[in-house]
Amino acid sequence: MPGAPGRVVTLIEDLEACCAGMAYRIDPTLSSTVLARLDHREQGGYDQLQIPIHFSATETVTGITYYANSTNSSFLGTAPVDSIAQQIVDSTGPSGPNSEYILELDKALQSINLALAQDPDNHVAAIAIAVRRLLAT
């Protein structure tokens, strides 16, 4: 459905999992404005979750991420890669087309994984490949 609300990256709470990524420090004087914008962007299926962010073995801070709560009415659950890719290509969120988001996410994750010598996120990579294929047709 063109123009449908965006649903791209779905983090699900898993107490045994580890997620490498990028953390951004928010100026305390701007935090309410920034968080209000993020809440608007992440609407429709995502909840805020405070998590520990480990920058090193000795430096940990509390951060905020958005995750998919399976009790949320917009939660879609699992789906085949091709179905996810089609939904992404057909959807646009408050910040633009979801296809752009997933392709940039894939590129960023590849950079992070190379820098950290980690395995790639195969799920995101597979979705990005399927999205590129759909966009090329």
Brief summary:
The chain is α+β, with helices and mostly antiparallel strands. The chain is 40% helix and 16% strand. The chain starts with 30 loop residues before the first helix and ends with a helix.
Could you explain how this protein is built, in words?
The protein starts with 30 loop residues before the first helix and ends with a helix. Helix content is 40%, strand content 16%. The chain is globular, with a radius of gyration of 16 Å. It is α+β, with helices and mostly antiparallel strands. It contains 4 helices and 4 strands.
Unreliable residue runs: 1-8
The helical percent reads: 40-55%
Major sheet summary line: 2 strands, antiparallel
- Could you give the order of the helices and strands? HEEHEEHH
In order across it, which strands form the biggest sheet?
1-2
Please state the CA-atom Rg, rounded to the nearest Å.
16 Å
Number of domains: 1
Strand content: 15-25%
Structural class: alpha+beta
Strand tally is 4
Oligomer: single chain
